Amino acid sequence: MIRFISLFAWIFVVVVQGTNYKTWMADNAPLLSQKTLGNISLVATHDSGTYNLTNTLINLDSYGPPLTTLYNALDTIANWTGEPLSDLIGLFADGVRAASKCTTKDIYSQLCDGNRGLDLRLSVYNGNIYMAHVLQGPSLSIVLAEVMQFLNETTGEVVYITAGHPYGFNQTYIDLLDSLLNPFVKGGFAITPAAYPGNLLTYTYGQLVNNSRSRVIIVLDDTINPNNNSYFSASTYSPPDGGSNTLCGFYTDSDNITVVITNQTANYIHCGTIPAPAAIYMTLTPSTGDTADLANELILEVFDNLDTYQIYESFFHLNIRFQNLCTHANLSTQVGMSSVSKTTFQRYYDDLIAPNKHRIQSLHLSNPFISDFFISLLEDIKRCSQLQTLTLCNIEYDCLETVLTAAVYLPNLSSLSICVNSQSDKITIYKLIFQLPVLKYCKMTFQDQGRDFLKLLSMSINSSSLIERLVISDNYDYSDIDTILSYVPRIRYLSVRSQNLLVMRDILGCLVIFSDLTHMSIITNCLSPISTEEFVKKHSHQVGTRHARKLGKILFYRIYHI
């Protein structure tokens, strides 16, 4: 993406068709001489020093998500895919370069093309000051040498430099910055606050280029300005995105040139009514190529390793490209929300969940508000046609019953984990779960643990439940387990555990393992051996071998069928 910024686009624009762009200001000196700087339109380049970006990342942490999220996930992706980490870092750099490289020409060429505004982003790295936009660009000394070359070759030109977005500076590097800029001051090229007090924008072109020399205006971020008499303050004289409170303007976040022109025209008109000089931002976007495609591949691999809410928070609001990736890419949507505000979740739901209900594969609800929200929109649950895993915690019984009733319409729900509050109708919960058509794994934790209620659940003689693994945290005996087993004819693994409230830990009640219909294992430490023996006889038809042994307080049975 290449951005051109037109500074001070107010009232007066010089027509330079058919002229030498390198000397367009000097060639039009008679027209410009009485015009103030605030009334002259200067063409500028955005991130002017990004024409030669290396693969070296030097200020990634200052940008935050999504770049930090992407980069921090590279090691995980390398382990997952088997791709060399160095290759992924190179791919990452290619993607960053595609978004960060705002111009293809060096500073001298930009000035010869007629650009008079330079936007320099400064970062400290390895003992020097460089141009940077996530990736390391040329050194500041190289950039300034090209500016000096242009000033020495011309007369009557005015170059406007803003140096901002500083990264890694301390007093040592502020002093270094001063030493690099000082030749412009000592050589008489710099237009300084000491020589031009008050409002710089009110001085005329003729006053600024006295003696016909080419001049340079240097605007520095306030935090790194070593000398307020030599360099102007960014808080007053930088483009608006650099923090200026004098200039007026804004980017148009669109690749549609018609939208850009419309918005920037409105901005220009608004600035004329204030009145204030305008910074007009025009965006030129090259066609998408292989590099952008590679960047998309990398981003999608990162998405595969993140929760949907992490993707939303880090990427969704960046720009249209990332919104499209979030909402239209072939992602397996995971929704896991534990602690988030009502306002945040509503925004998240409207932007990402609602348009993608049919793609949600995993849903974890443990926030009471969010659970109530989903349940109040019951049709939303029914439309989650790809939902495979559902986890429900901290939900009132009425809401839980509503969800389980609707879950029968979910054709792919194979895994269910629920935490059941006290004073719940356990019989209803069991019946609803055993009716789920494709459920294979179920884990239930009951806060109110007691045996009596299950006596009211009758034995099943024709259950078609597909549950193969059933984990229950409650207090049952063998007769209760008999009842449960009658509802799960395809069971392969059953674990029943009860909580010992005196020592606040779970104790094993009974673990029954059926393996390929060839043998059954029972491990128990709180049910009587007599009851265990009776249970074994009941569930081991045509027993060929029966083996029992005691491991401490645990009784272990293994029954082999003929």
Question: Top keywords for this entry?
Answer:
11-stranded mixed beta sheet, 21 helices, alpha/beta, 562 residues, disordered C terminus, 35% helix, TIM Barrel, 10-stranded mixed beta sheet
Characterization of this structure:
The chain is of the alpha/beta class and 562 residues long. Among the domains are: 105-235, Phosphatidylinositol (PI) phosphodiesterase (TIM Barrel), CATH 3.20.20.190; 430-562, no CATH class. Helix content is 35%, strand content 23%. It is built from 21 helices and 21 strands. The strands form 2 sheets. Strands 11-12-13-14-15-16-17-18-19-21-20 form an 11-stranded mixed β-sheet, covered by helices on one side. α4 crosses α5 and α5 (85-100) packs across α12. The chain is elongated, with a radius of gyration of 35 Å. The termini are far apart.
